[in-house]
Structure formats: C-alpha cells, structure tokens
Design brief:
Number of strands of chain B: 3
Number of helices of chain A: 11
Shape of chain B: extended
Strand order of the largest sheet of chain B: 1-2
Radius of gyration of chain B: 17 Å
Shape of chain A: globular
Helix content of chain A: 25-40%
Distance between the termini of chain A: 10 Å
Order of helices and strands of chain A: EHEHHHEEHHEHEEEEHHEHHEEEEEEEEE
Strand content of chain A: 25-35%
Structural class of chain A: alpha+beta
Helix content of chain B: 10-25%
Oligomer: heterodimer
Distance between the termini of chain B: 24 Å
Largest sheet of chain A: 5 strands, antiparallel
Largest interface: A-B, 72 and 52 residues
Order of helices and strands of chain B: HHEEHE
Chain lengths: ~375, ~110
C-alpha cells in the first residue's frame, strides 16, 4: 500500500459534477485526487478475504446476541426486541455494509462496522472509477460495487413484498440524497419499481395502520438511509411496530445490533484468535493503549485515544449517553501526516470494493478526504 | 476489481440531461422538471437557478437546492430532482386527511457514517 502524489485533472470539478457528485467540496476539500493509493493484487486479495471473514463473524455474532438476549448492552429499546428478532428470523434482506479497516505492516484490523447507514458508496462505486478511466484506463481497481448492487437487487426482487420499493433519506442533505438515489438507480436497473419519498414526508395513516408516501400510496418495502436508533427514538417509531403492512425496511432492524459499537467486545469475546479483530471490552480492562468509543456515534465524534495511559487525541460531540466500548489502539499508518482508513464494502454477501478516506490526524472525522485507489 | 467497462446511471444521467435541456425556468406544472415540495404547509419561495455564477456552478448537479430568503439571509430547505413525482414536489395533492406527517426526520442533519 503506497500513497502517491499526482496531478489533478484540469477539469476535475466538472468531471465529477457531470457524474452528479455535487458535494466534492464543502468548507474543506472532500474529493481529493491530488494523491492516490496503490495496492498490489496480493494486498487487495487480503482485504477481500478479511472483509468476507468479518461479515461471516458478524452474522454469527448477531445470532449470539439474540440467543443470549444481550440487548441491554446495546441500549436497544425493549419494545423493539421482538421486532428485531422477527426480522432476523424472517431473513428480511440486507443489501450492504462498510467495514472500516486499518491496514498497516501487512496486518488488517477492523476498527468498526458501518452496518446500517454507511455513506461514501457513490464516491467508491462511481466517482473513483471514472477518475481511474481518466488517469489510467489500463489499471484496475478493487471496485465491483456497481455491478454487485444491481445483481443483488435482482436477487432480492422476488423476496420483496408486492408493490413498489420506496427509497428515503433526509431532505436537507445532498450527500445522503446522492447516495440514496445512486442505490435507487441500481434497483431500477435491476428491474424494480421504485419511488423516492423523503423521510421527513413519510405519513402515518392511523386508520389503516400503514405508512404512506406523499401521494398516500401505501409503503410495502423501503430502503432508508436513516439510522435505526433515530427511527426507534422518534415520534413515529412506535408505528413501525404497529404497521399492518409489516414493511420490509432495508437495512433491516437486526442491523441495529451490528451498527452498534457494542458489537466490538462481543466479536472479540467470540473470536479472540481472529487476526482481523482488535481486543475490545466494555471497560478499559487494564489496557494502557486504547480507543474509547461511544456505542452510538457518528463521524468520529466523542472518540478518545489513549496511549501509555495518556490521552493523545480526543474529539467532541454529543454522543456517549448510552455508554462506551474500549478497543485496543492500532494506529492508522502515517503517510506524511495523512492517515488512511479503508472502507471495505460488503454488498449482498460478498466483498465488493474499497474507498479510502484520509485525515490529518488519527481519528477519521467529518473533515476527512476521499482519495481514489488503483491496483498496480 | 474486475469491474465491467460499461457503467450506466439511469436516474442521475436523466436528471442531469433534464437540467441541460432546460435553459429557462419553467412555470409551475409545465415541463418535466419537478420541484421537491415536501410539506404543503411550509412556506417557501422558490429560488431561481441557471443564471448568475451560482446557476453556472450548479448546472451539472443532479440535485439542486431550493430554499428561501428571510431577512436577507438564504436558508436552504432541501433539494429537488427531476426524479421525484410532481405531486410530491409541489404538494398539489389536497387529500391528506387522516394522515400524519413529519414524525420522522428530526434525528439529525445527515447520517454521515
């Protein structure tokens, strides 16, 4: 894995905007093609193997949590427990997830799993691919995200309930809308009848006990880019449990278990010999080098990094009320003060590609940059 | 890895094509371009795109912001795209009785994970 400086395309802003990528720059650059990461095929195959292995371990861990009723460790509302178990037992489909991996000195370690609402899918699947076509079309990339999304929607099509597949996200965020519309694009190409409704606009028909869209059309299946912990906490959340349609929510509610960082100690407890996992606990367990993470948090908020018993980095935020986990410190590799984390996608049941975000500090936060990659 | 050389984007390409075909802003209810109008009770004034520096900068965007000006300050209310049904965008469907809306979406600004 190497970081290589390179030149920007002359018209890079236009090039990415033509793809519909409208959030390449905020108050700081987000899309950054002034460098790329180069991997050998062997390194990519290691990442692919790690991703597939971790996905299998995650599914076993969900079963373990359900079998042993460990919900309190996850602060999952009691009212949702039987619903989660039902969606797990009924195999309500999941389409994707993103493991955040650290790759250093030939070792791959899972930092966390974004199982419910992973973003940067469009950047990883489309934008960096077209960058490669301009940069060197003869090179390859670990990137079959687009093909696998279409293929998995085709596979899932027969399992959906009759009717449309709705897609929903927050109204006020271009990043979320782009990611959602991209996934909907792939579903359309898989032959699925789709419709977009913003999460803010979803209605509840009290008489029919059904969720409806803006045309009062009943919702039967819905892909949501909106976290389960928010759905469950909001005013409408109780209606999910009373819904006469028993909507297929994708991602399904059992992903509440995997998207919660309480899964990290569980995974470690079940698989202490796994080379891809870091020791993790619900307390510091006497570790002198560790990262303290809220079980529910986003974009690197409320993280504390401790080395030799002293704090070396810490971020602010509004999370932590539900508790913390403690994961052994495994520092990201340092490429001249650029610290990359590899987002490795699982689409359907298979590793599908990677996207790399790098920051100028060890905690990858919402100021991180997306940097493309290739296979040398 | 082993990605096919042909990638099609139906929705996003269509939205972009729609943006490029329309050189002037259509009137309400005409043309293919649609406007997200999530909540028919929320007041807003549609802003104009396609002119000035902002319009040029946004020309290629599949999803464009809309919002309103209040006390001289612009406040973004959301994004619209040609992919959203007209009825949703402009809130023309008057029959909403018995349906409660707005119960979701208060959790945050962006999922960003």
């Amino acid at each position: 894995m190497q970081r290589i400086q390179t030149s920007l395309r002359n018209n890079w802003q236009q090039a990415v905007e033509k793809l519909g990528f409208g959030f390449h720059t905020t108050d700081v650059p987000y899309w950054d093609e002034s460098a790329y990461y180069s991997f050998t095929l062997n390194e990519i195959e290691q990442i692919e193997k790690a991703t597939n292995t971790l996905w299998e371990l995650c599914l076993k861990a969900v079963q373990h949590v359900i079998d042993n009723k460990l919900y309190s460790k996850f602060h999952i509302p009691k009212s949702y427990i039987s619903y989660i178990e039902n969606t797990w037992n009924d195999d309500v489909p999941s389409i994707y997830g993103r493991f955040d991996l650290c790759y250093k000195n030939g070792k791959i370690k899972m930092l966390e799993f974004n199982a419910d609402t992973p973003t940067s899918l469009y950047e990883a699947g489309i934008v960096q691919w077209f960058w490669l076509q301009d940069f060197d079309a003869n090179k390859d990339q670990f990137n079959s995200i687009h093909e696998k999304l279409i293929a998995y929607w085709k596979y899932l099509k027969v399992y959906l309930q009759p009717g449309k597949l709705h897609f929903t996200c927050l109204k006020e965020t271009l990043e979320d809308l782009t990611n959602t519309e991209y996934i909907r694009d792939c579903a359309i190409q898989a032959g699925i009848d789709t419709k977009l409704v913003f999460i803010d606009d979803i209605g509840w028909d009290e008489n029919a006990k059904q969720f409806v869209d803006m045309e009062d059309e009943s919702i039967r299946n819905i892909f949501k880019l909106y976290p389960w912990e928010w759905l469950a906490a909001e005013e409408f959340g109780k209606n999910i449990l009373e819904d006469s349609n028993k909507i297929f929510w994708i991602e399904p509610s059992w992903k509440m278990i995997l998207s919660n960082k309480a899964i990290l100690p569980i995974l470690w407890e079940l698989n202490p010999d796994c080379e891809y996992l870091l020791p993790a606990y619900f307390d510091d367990n006497g570790m002198k080098d560790y990262v303290k993470k809220p079980i529910l948090s986003r974009e690197g908020a409320n993280i504390e990094m401790v080395k030799h018993y002293g704090t070396i980095e810490k971020t602010n935020g509004e999370y932590g009320e539900e508790g913390f986990v403690y994961q052994q410190l495994f520092e990201l590799p340092d490429f001249d003060n650029n610290y990359p984390v590899i987002g490795s996608w699982i689409i359907g049941q298979e590793a599908a590609g990677i996207g790399i975000r790098e920051a100028n500090n060890l905690i990858t936060d919402n100021k991180s940059r997306f940097v493309p990659h290739l296979i040398s | 890895m082993k990605k096919s050389k042909t990638i099609q984007l139906i929705l996003i390409t269509a939205a972009l094509a729609s943006c490029q075909e329309k050189k002037t802003e259509p009137e309400w209810g005409s043309g293919n371009k649609t406007y997200v109008r999530g909540d028919s009770t929320a007041p807003y004034a549609r802003t104009h795109h396609g002119s000035g520096m902002l319009g040029v900068a946004l020309w290629y965007y599949a999803f464009r912001p809309y919002g309103n000006y209040s006390n001289g300050r612009y406040s973004r209310a959301g994004y619209y795209s040609g992919a959203i049904p007209n009825g949703s965008n402009i809130g023309s469907n008057g029959y909403k009785a018995g349906v409660t809306r707005g119960g979701f979406g208060r959790g945050g600004y962006s999922v960003g994970s």
